[in-house]
């Protein structure tokens, strides 16, 4: 289907198990080191929301990334945690704080605005 997935090579069997049943077989097109991807831009999970319109997501190195959990690639949320915020400061990344001091989504987060994250359910 023309899609490319970037993940730790040892996790390829996981991708095949999840997607291979209905989308065909997968194969490795190219092997890269994580350091080869540093500086790349990518689309983030909330780019369609107004608050994220001017945010550029950039691949940065981080020692906490591993293949033991997830894909071996981590999208950080600098406005949502100490480690992510520290990494954003180190690499001069944009910081978007999605919730206010009461833990409620602020304006600019579309269907999430005025909702507590724990109660957020995307409408159909």
Notes on the structure:
The chain is built from three helices and two strands, in the order H-H-E-E-H. A two-stranded antiparallel sheet has the order 1-2. The protein folds into two domains: 1-31, no CATH class; 32-119, Valyl/Leucyl/Isoleucyl-tRNA synthetase, editing domain (Isoleucyl-tRNA Synthetase, domain 2). The protein is mainly α and 124 residues long.
Helices and strands in order:
Blueprint lengths: L11 H12 L10 H4 L3 E2 L14 E2 L23 H10 L33
Antiparallel strand pairs: 1-2
Rg of Cα set: 17 Å
- Average pLDDT reading: 84
β-strand number: 2
Secondary-structure-derived class: mainly alpha
The unreliable regions are none
Total tally of structural domains: 2
* Strand order in the largest sheet: 1-2
- Give the helices and strands as they follow along the chain: HHEEH
Helix content: 10-25%
Q: What percent strand?
A: under 5%
How far apart are the termini? 25 Å
CATH class category of the largest domain: Alpha Beta
């Amino acid at each position: 289907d023309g899609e490319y997935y970037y993940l730790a090579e040892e996790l390829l069997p996981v991708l095949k198990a999840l997607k291979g049943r209905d989308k065909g077989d997968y194969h490795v097109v190219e092997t890269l080191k994580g350091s080869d991807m540093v500086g790349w831009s990518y689309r983030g999970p909330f780019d369609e929301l107004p608050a994220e319109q001017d945010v550029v997501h950039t691949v940065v190195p981080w020692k906490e990334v591993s293949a033991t959990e997830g894909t071996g690639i981590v999208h950080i949320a600098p406005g949502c945690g100490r480690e992510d915020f520290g990494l954003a400061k180190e690499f001069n990344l944009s910081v978007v704080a999605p919730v206010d001091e009461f833990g409620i989504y602020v304006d600019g987060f579309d269907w999430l605005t005025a909702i507590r994250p724990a109660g957020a359910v995307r409408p159909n």
